[in-house]
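Question thread 4412

I'm putting together a teaching handout and wanted feedback from people who do this every day. The idea is simple: show students a protein as raw sequence, then show them the C-alpha cells that encode its fold, then repeat with a second protein so they can compare. Below is the first pair exactly as I plan to print it.
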Amino acid sequence: MKSMNFAFIVLLVLTASATALPGAGEYSMSDIIVRNLPAKKQNGSAWDPFGGAPDVLVAIYIDYGDEVEHYSSTSEKENSGSSAIWSRTESFFVSAGEANREDVELLIKVWDIDSRNGNDFIDSGKISFSDLETGEVELELNYGTVITFELEGPFTYDEGVCEG
C-alpha cells in the first residue's frame, strides 16, 4: 500500500510540473504581470515630467544569435507604478528545430513609453528555448524587474482550424 501511495504522489508531481517546449507552432503568453519596476530611471531621474510613474510596455522578441525578430508587444499601461498586469494574450512562433536550441532565446524588453521625449529602456532578460517550459513562467530580468506569464502551445493550424 505504501508503494502505491508513493507512486501516486510521484505521478501527481510529474503531472503538475511544466514540460519543455514540445515543438514547432505558435505559443501564447497570457496573464502577463510585471513587478518590481524601478521607481526611477537608471540615471536617477523620474520616468516622466513632474515625477510621474512609468508608462510600461512589454515587447517580445526571438533572439536567434545573429538576428533579433520582434513578435509582439503589450499595450501601454500609463502611470503603472511598480507593477503592471495585462490580460490580453501575446504570441510568438517557434519553427521546427528551434524548440530545444540553446542559442535561440525568448527576449523580453520592458519600456517606458513617452510621446514627447522618446521611449526609455527599463529592463530586459532572455531565456533559452531549451530552458523554456509551458505553464507558468517567472523570469527575473537583468535589473531586478520580474515578469510572470502563462505559456501555452504549440498551436498549429490545419486548413484554418486551430489545434493545440
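The second pair follows. I'd like the answer to focus on this one:
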Amino acid sequence: MSYLPKQERDSGHNPLFTTLKNLLILGQWEAANQETITLMLQLANRSEDGWLWPEDFSRLPRPALKILNQLWVQHSCGRFGFSVQQRFWQKVGGLQADDPYLAECRLGDAVGWRHLDGTWLTYSQIQFAANAPRGHLPLAFAWWVEDGGIILGGLGKFWQMVVEGDLATPGPEANVIELPR
C-alpha cells in the first residue's frame, strides 16, 4: 500500500488521477470518459477483460470513486459526475424500482442517453461536450452492441453502492489508493 504525503491526499495531487484531471481541465470530455473507464477497470482488476460486470462494482474502492466523482463535478462546474447521475437515479426511483430496466430507461431519458423514440444513443451520438445534458457524463458502465446502441449493465448495483457511500468529498483515506496487483 502506498501512502502519500499529507499535502497530496486530495484528488488534485493523487498521481493515479493526474491524467484524468488534466483531460478534464482541458475539456477533453471523450478522452476523460475513456480515462475514467480505464481507471475503473484498473481499480477493479479487470483491465485485461476490458469490461466490468455488476459484481465487479464492489471491488471499486469508494475513496477512488469519490475522487473520480469530485474531479468530474469540479471540472464540469457541477454538470457531470457520478453524484449528479446518482441524483437523477434517485429521482427516477431507481433504487426502489420493480423493473430495473425501466429505471435504467428513465435514467437514460433524464440524462440524454436515449432518443425521444426510446432507442438508446449510439456511441457516436454521445455528447462529449460541456453543454451536454446534465449527468450525461461520465458514461463508464455501458456496453456498445452490434447495432451501436447502449446497454447499461448493473446500474442498480452500482447506484446502491454509490448511495451507501457519500461521494461528495474524498476523505483522508484517499491517500492509500493504489492499483490491485
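Top answer:
Good format. For the second protein you could add a caption like this: Residues 1-11, 169-181 have pLDDT under 50 and may be disordered. DSSP finds six helices and two strands in the chain.
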